[in-house]
Amino acid sequence: SGGRVRLGVGSGWQRSEYEALQEDFGSRGQRLDEAIELLRAYWRDEHITYDGNYYHADNMTMEPKPPQGGGIPIWIGGTKRPALRRVVSHGDGWMAMSAPGDPPLEEKIAQLHQFAEEAERDIHSIGMQMSLSPDALNKEERKRFYADPKLMLQRCESLAAMGFDTVSIDCVPIFQKGYRTVDAMLDYLAEIHHVLQPVISQPA
Fold it and tell me: How much of the chain, in percent, has pLDDT values that exceed 90?
């Protein structure tokens, strides 16, 4: 890919997944922090010795190194306070989401800014991506959203105004709207892309 890869990670929310692996659900955040540190060491250093609480490496090496130079960018998902703190302490970007029951997106952005200020980190050094989905509280719009690219454009415009520089599209709801073949889905994604051009073509 010529260095275009970035890695998205998250600690997960489903306890049963951890139980199936016989792992402690309660320490998942700390393990993720260590895993990020260890990955960056593998991508950066010629020989790696690491002695953490959960991971250990003794004079290990990994080749080839990522072509990005400083390592693959790591973007962190999540909406809770620990996840937002992790974005600031360990991440290159934040993968946001909006689900029923979550606080308004603006509140989470404000928390992210607060944590960045406390850590003396420039908030503009943190990328922001949001899945192109309707506001969690707008039940009526959620029914029509993936069938109407104009609603997607309006949401894209509002996300850009909040500071998001990247949007992604979940193809599962598009599949559920009846686009059941690869060709049909690609054609509809091309239509969405055309409608979103006024926003996504603007220079950063």
Answer: 78
What span, in angstroms and rounded, lies between the C-alpha atoms of 93 and 111? 15
Q: Which residue, chain included where needed, has tokens 């199936």? A: 20
Nearest 10 degrees: Cα torsion 112, 41, 56, 34: 0
Which stretches within the chain are classed as H helix? 15-20, 28-44, 81-90, 105-118, 139-144, 149-162, 171-176, 182-200
pTM of this prediction? 0.86
The span from the CA of 27 to the CA of 35, in Å, is 12
Q: What is the pLDDT of residues 31-53, one digit of tens each?
A: 999 999 999 999 999 999 999 99
- Residue 141 to residue 148: CA distance in whole angstroms: 10
pLDDT digits (tens, 9 = 90+) for 105-118: 899 999 999 999 99
Whether 195 and 153 have beta carbons less than 8 Å apart is answered as yes
Which DSSP symbol is given to 98? -
The 10s digit of each residue's pLDDT in 78-104 is 988 999 999 999 999 999 987 767 788
Reduced DSSP (H G I as helix, E B as strand, rest coil) percent helix, strand, coil of the chain, to 5: 50, 15, 35
Residues recorded for the chain: 204
Do the strands 48-51 and 56-60 form a parallel or antiparallel pair, or are they unpaired? antiparallel
Cβ 196 vs Cβ 152: under 8 Å? yes
113: left (phi over 0), alpha (psi -120 to 50) or beta: alpha
